[in-house]
């Protein structure tokens, strides 16, 4: 029995301890935001936080995850108000979306340890292969998320579906709700 905490909930997996964490998350827990390329070739679509460190869930077994704290894209921010998620939308750094969860997880880990990363640090921290080619916008989004995390700016990106802009602003104090004056500019 493998025990760990996933998205702030204690869980037990009665699965082969050699199974990659990825498949336990996707198949046993139905956390399908963590993507799978099938062999670790994508650079990190299956990225999750393991004790706050971004790791490829296809490369860590249930035995290696024993007793650790796992955060998936679903657990990063239930209302999609995390600064990286908002910055990715604001900078239009999302295309097909396949690699996006892993990129957001890697960027969130970077911003957590360094809210003012250089372009080189962003590029080194995000190993994901994005076939859509959003890299320039991705770097801008991570830099912007850092400014939001440092409270240097707000984001007026669209909130998640079903969440009003006002509620999103309450969830993230740095999130600025556009006013009528903004719309006349």
From TrEMBL:
Domain (2Fe-2S ferredoxin-type): residue spans on this chain = 2-76
Name of the featured protein: Putative isoquinoline 1-oxidoreductase (Alpha subunit)oxidoreductase protein
SUPFAM superfamilies for this protein = 2Fe-2S ferredoxin-like, CO dehydrogenase ISP C-domain like
Select a single GO molecular function from the record's annotations and give it: metal ion binding
Residue numbers spanned by region Disordered: 159-185
Q: Which PANTHER family match?
A: BLR6218 PROTEIN (PTHR44379:SF2), OXIDOREDUCTASE WITH IRON-SULFUR SUBUNIT (PTHR44379)
Q: Which UniProt keywords apply?
A: 2Fe-2S, Iron, Iron-sulfur, Metal-binding
Q: Which organism is it from?
A: Erythrobacter dokdonensis DSW-74
């Amino acid at each position: 029995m493998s025990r760990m905490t996933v998205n702030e909930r204690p869980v037990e997996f009665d699965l082969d301890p050699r199974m990659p964490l990825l498949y336990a998350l996707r198949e046993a827990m139905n956390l399908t935001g963590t993507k799978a390329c099938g062999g670790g070739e994508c650079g990190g679509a299956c990225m999750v936080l393991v004790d706050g460190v971004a790791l490829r869930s296809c490369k860590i077994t249930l035995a290696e995850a024993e007793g650790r704290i796992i955060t998936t894209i679903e657990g990063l921010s239930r209302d999609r108000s995390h600064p990286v998620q908002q910055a990715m939308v604001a900078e239009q750094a999302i295309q097909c979306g396949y690699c996006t969860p892993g990129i957001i997880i890697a960027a969130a880990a970077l911003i957590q340890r360094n809210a003012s990363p250089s372009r080189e640090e962003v590029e080194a921290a995000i190993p994901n292969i994005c076939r859509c080619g959003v890299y320039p916008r991705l770097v801008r989004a991570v830099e912007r998320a850092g400014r939001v995390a440092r409270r240097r700016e707000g984001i007026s990106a669209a909130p998640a579906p079903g969440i009003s802009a006002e509620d999103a602003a309450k969830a993230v104090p740095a999130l600025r709700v556009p006013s009528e004056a903004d719309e006349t500019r």
